Amino acid sequence: MKKSILKRVSALLLFAVITSMSFGCLDDEKEDDSWYTDITVGTPISDDIKAYGTKVYRINFASIGSYTATLSAQQSNCGITLCSYDESDESLGDLVDNIIGEVDVFNDTTNEVATIGVTVAGYAYIVIDEWDDVDSGYTLTITSGTKSESKEIILDTLSQKTGAVENAVIDKIMDKWDFNK
Predict the structure, then answer these.
(1) Hey, which of 99-103, 153-157, 175-179 has the most confident mean pLDDT?
(2) E strands, the chain, where?
(3) What is the pTM of this model?
(4) CATH T-level fold of 37-176
(5) Extents of the domains making up the chain
């Protein structure tokens, strides 16, 4: 009788362990999908960022042409990094090889404006970084067309995995990004 009870308790414990592991895997998959936020051209997004934080947005450039990325209303020094899209990307760490360009001209709260020349329609990532160790809010707006005061970034192909920026910029970004998220 004691062996029978022990077998039942063992079976229940094993069932509980397997069930909790299964649900844990489902939760992990859900978290993997939430490392970026989808945004659309023409719809401003207002968000908050922690000191030295990073936020990732995925955008679909539906057609070839020029677009303007404007980062405004920030309370600290924030910058914009454009990365090509690769459907196998699963985290911020995967974007290091996808960096195309970075705009952080003013090193203060002045609006950052970038012209993005899209030669192949499709997805791209826009990464916002905070550099001052100050929590901040901001508004990111992507619009069709260009603004004369912007820095130009050419997005030659959305499937390429090479960046056209200086190594110093890449090193600055890699030093700051937290790949353990």
Answers:
(1) 99-103
(2) 37-39, 45-49, 54-61, 65-72, 78-84, 99-103, 112-118, 122-130, 136-144, 151-155
(3) 0.67
(4) Jelly Rolls (2.60.120)
(5) 1-34, 37-176
